[in-house]
Amino acid sequence: MFVSLAFFLAAQQITIPFGKPPPHPEKPRAPIEVAGPMWADACKDSDDWDRPAPPVRIHANTYLVGTCGISSILVMGDAGGILIDGGPENAADLIVDNIRDLGFSLLDVKIIVNSHEHYDHAGGIARLQRLTGAQLYASPAQAKFRKAEPSIGQALLARGTYDERRECARVRPRSGFPCQE
After folding, report:
1. pLDDT tens digits, residue range 26-43?
2. Which of 84, 126, 149, 150 is a plausible cystine mate for 73, CB 3.0–4.6 Å?
3. Under CATH, to which class is 30-138 assigned?
């Protein structure tokens, strides 16, 4: 009886699951094997800060979403995303397009981290912050810089064109902020 039941089940190709079925992992968005060559082609011979570059999955949940010349990194997690740097002011919309092209909502970005106060990394942050509603995180040195000289910490970074050494030399006596040589 048991043998005939086993043969019957085998003939029907019926499987009996034991426990939960294995999860089906999400297909990677913009995998480097595909998006990497696209990025290389789009940015060939260019380090232009305003030139659009396709998004690329760097590893796991980490994506390159910047331009050909300036990196912006998006790290996505269960509680939302962290965007590292906002590129120059003109790159903000390109970064937005790349986040959307990956299938994420701008509202998924919860934190924006500014690595340093140079225009090429901070110029687009104000617009990105408005569009995402994300909190801005910066280093203590940047906070000191922004408090000591708000006109540089906000207006000059948003404007995007100034001679950094000349400007730093102008405000150093008042702010005490060290200029980068």
Report:
1. 677 888 888 889 999 999
2. 84
3. alpha beta
